[in-house]
Specification:
Layout: H1 2-16, H2 18-37, H3 60-79, H4 94-119, H5 127-144, H6 161-183, H7 190-210, H8 212-222, H9 224-237, H10 247-271, H11 280-293, H12 307-329, H13 334-354, E1 377-378, E2 381-382, E3 387-389, E4 392-394, H14 396-419, H15 422-432, H16 434-439, H17 444-470, H18 488-498, H19 504-519, H20 527-541, H21 550-556, H22 560-563, H23 567-583
Antiparallel strand pairs: 1-2, 3-4
Helix pairs in contact: 2-3, 2-5, 3-4, 3-7, 4-5, 4-7, 6-9, 10-14, 10-17, 10-18, 10-19, 11-12, 11-13, 11-17, 12-17, 14-17, 15-17, 18-19
């Protein structure tokens, strides 16, 4: 009877075994058809942005669907055990395949709906669009029916050093291309940018679920110098790829300014655990100081410092303001500290608006601000003029972009050194439990004051560059919340969404929070609504941030390693433990 039961189970398992393979082949077939459909016309008229009327030459919107289909098919083939593709899914393929298929379908469906809405009728769709939507739906449904194969990622075999270096360079080159594609999307084609966000968001999530990002992180950790060098080289290469002028380079400059200030705030919030709701005021202090001492025509002082002196003056002024504000307030904790810093931010903005010679002394020209800030000049190199480098003409904003790369590198070094120092460990101790840290001999007030002053100093440095980039400084640039970053609310969101206590987290968060409002300006009053909804969704699905440190991952996902084991494997492990105990 036992033998018969075993044969029956084996027969059942044998009949069920081909099902995942059949589903995976269905995913592959659907992905192939979806990819082919991108070479067909999706609409008959060029009235829709992007010109989706050409056969054999996919438009940018169709390219996004093509990329999603190719990635989905490759991950499905990896799950089928195709030789050479196993590295794509070290932690399991089912979740990654389903997320990629869902992202491809969402991108394709969004494009089809956009055509209907923009042109006004369903008949404006060509058969190619219908084929694309139906073909993309097949992998999404088939991959959803796949059994879960999540597992612990086996330790990867270490590759030769030259191979790992090539992987690091290729990853950063691909990252540069993806970022450049997003920044360079035409503002007149918001559909392209929205579709770009959809496919990039789903693809990034799939890479995390497949375990590939962990392996890439391990490779970059073993090749730290190559990683840092590649990051710097790729960042410097960005303006050389902008053949359409400085339009999109300005966005990149503002992203770097925003990210630099966010890194300074990350010291206060991410390392020291101090909730600062008026941090943008320190950016304003640096900007106003630089404007007053850089030779602006409306400056009340009538002096002109070289940039290095103006930068040091702006940093010193922000540091003094940080100490003056922090000294009487940092004995407060939690919500009380947040309210005081919020008040400081509003006081700064109102004070700058009142120093107009009527409501107060004539220093900042009141609400009109300080215009006509002169361009920077180093050793005869004028940042406001175009220059030819390596046969490529770089505009004014490209010059400021390269300057901000240097400033960003300096801030990253300061953040890294401070975070790994003795005082950095004291900040973390204060953040985790101030009472326990004080009992262990840490002077909580002094440690927090140092964090507050250092963060303010870095924000002041970014403010000095911002003043010269914008050539004018007005109080409205330094509000608590608004649709246009940087402001205190967006800065805090960039740190929390990106990942508190990390270096790359606030940079990624700042890039997203600046780029999305800049590209979706057509939403106008609905921008903050969309931002709030996205904030809620992300905090619900990934509370530790997009790029979290090890401590945050353990705090929010303590049992992730156990969950990566499939039920059958867990049962066999439990049985093995039970047998061992019984045998003992």
């Amino acid at each position: 009877m036992t033998e018969t039961k075993t044969q029956t189970e084996n027969t059942t398992e044998g009949s069920a075994a081909p099902k995942p393979a059949a589903l995976l082949w269905t995913v592959v077939a659907g992905s192939v058809v979806t990819a082919v459909s991108t070479f067909l016309a999706w609409t008959w008229t060029t009235a829709f942005p992007g010109n989706l009327t050409i056969y054999g030459n996919p438009a940018p919107l169709q390219l996004l669907t093509l990329v999603g289909a190719v990635l989905t098919g490759l991950h499905a083939l990896s799950a089928l055990g195709v030789k050479g593709l196993g590295w794509l899914t070290p932690a399991g393929a089912r979740k990654a395949v389903w997320i990629l298929a869902l992202g491809t379908f969402a991108t394709t469906l969004f494009t089809a709906i956009s055509i209907i809405v923009e042109l006004g009728a369903l008949v404006d769709l060509e058969p190619g669009a219908g084929v694309a939507v139906l073909a993309a739906a097949v992998p999404a449904v088939a991959s959803y029916l796949l059994p879960d194969d999540t597992r612990k990622a086996a330790p990867a075999k270490q590759l030769p050093s030259w191979a790992e270096i090539l992987i690091v360079v290729a990853v950063f080159a691909l990252g540069l291309y993806v970022v450049t594609f997003g920044i360079d999307t035409d503002d007149s084609e918001p559909q392209l940018f929205i579709a770009y966000l959809i496919i990039v968001g789903f693809s990034a999530t799939a890479l995390v679920k497949s375990g590939l990002t962990r392996r890439l992180s391990a490779i970059t950790a073993r090749n730290r110098q190559v990683t840092v060098t590649s990051a710097i080289v790729m960042a410097i290469a960005f303006p050389f790829l902008q053949q359409s002028g400085d339009t999109y380079t300005l966005i990149a400059v503002n992203i770097l300014i925003f990210a630099t200030v966010a890194l300074g705030l990350n010291i206060v919030v991410g390392l020291a655990g101090l909730l600062d709701l008026g941090y943008v005021a320190f950016l304003g202090v640096g900007a106003y100081t630089a404007a007053l001492v850089s030779g602006a025509t409306s400056s009340a002082f009538g002096i002109q410092f070289p940039f290095w002196a103006a930068a040091l003056t702006g940093m010193a002024a922000s540091l003094v303001f940080g100490v003056v504000i922090g000294a009487p307030t940092l004995r407060l904790r939690g919500d009380y500290l947040a309210i005081v810093t919020l008040g400081f931010g509003e006081i700064f903005r109102i004070a700058m608006g009142n120093l107009d010679g009527t409501s107060g002394p004539q220093i900042t020209n009141g609400p009109n601000g300080i215009p006509n800030i002169p361009q920077l000049e180093f050793f005869g190199y004028n940042f406001g003029e175009s220059h030819t480098v390596l046969g490529i003409e770089l505009g004014a904003y490209a010059n400021y972009y390269l300057l901000m790369i240097l400033v960003m590198a300096l801030v990253v070094v300061v953040f890294s050194r401070a975070g790994n120092s003795r005082i950095g460990r004291a900040w973390v101790a204060i953040r985790e439990d101030e009472t326990a840290a004080t009992a262990m001999g840490i002077n909580g007030f002094r440690v927090k004051l140092v964090a507050f002053a250092l963060g303010a100093c870095l924000a002041g440095l970014a403010g000095t560059v911002q003043a010269h980039v914008n050539t004018t400084v007005v109080p409205e640039n330094y509000v608590f919340a608004g649709p246009v970053p940087p402001n205190s609310a967006f800065l805090l969101a960039a740190v929390i969404l990106g990942g508190m206590g990390t270096i790359s987290g606030p940079i990624v968060g700042s890039a997203l929070l600046f780029l999305i409002p800049a590209k979706l300006s057509f939403l106008q009053d609905y921008q903050l609504l969309g931002f709030g909804i996205a904030l809620i969704v992300l905090m619900r699905t990934r509370p530790e941030g997009l790029i979290a440190n090890k401590r945050a991952r353990l705090e929010f996902h303590e049992n992730d390693d156990d969950q990566r084991v499939v039920p059958e494997q867990r049962q066999s492990e439990d049985a093995g433990v039970g047998t061992a105990k019984a045998g003992a």
